[in-house]
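[audit] Reproducing an earlier prediction to check determinism. Same input, same settings, fresh worker. If the tokens differ from the archived copy the diff job will pick it up downstream; this log only records the rerun itself.
[audit] input (183 residues):
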Amino acid sequence: MTGASTPPPATRPRRSRLRTVLPLAVVAWLVLEIWLLTVVADVASVFTVFLLLIAGIVLGSVVIKRAGRRAFQNLNEALQRGTAPSSGGGSGLTMLGGLLLMLPGLVSDAAGLLLLVPAVQKALGQYAERAVDRKLRRSAPGGLGDAFQQARMYRPDGKVVQGEVIRDEPGDAAREQRPPLNR
């Protein structure tokens, strides 16, 4: 015995609810998709299920292509006007709907088609905006800038590191003194 004290055991942080529920939800969704595909194959035929899956992939790729083209066009127009680009008018939810259509399964196809309805997009967009706003206000009372400041200063080991890092790389001075290459 040296008399040195041993450090206290580290307490594990609690797992978030999302990290606990998400894997279970994904497994349940996969089981539901497989079960539903087998039910439809028994009622109709395997060929019908195959055609439904192919149609979902084709429709999803068309939807994603159109939404991406529309988002790129909005960005181009905003840059030509010299203004900030808008949120895209639901392009993100449209692309998510197209991605869900491309995933094999009937439940994901139904969810993807539902996301293509403009009223659903508007309601989900407003809900997501309010949820993100609430989360930001709750996590960082002083605003988003304070959250980044806190994340930079407090380390996992509990030490507070203040200051800034200035990197002087040895090659910087040599690069500045070199004449440009003429070709």
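[audit] rerun output stored. Observation attached for the diff report: The two ends are 73 Å apart (CA to CA).
[audit] end
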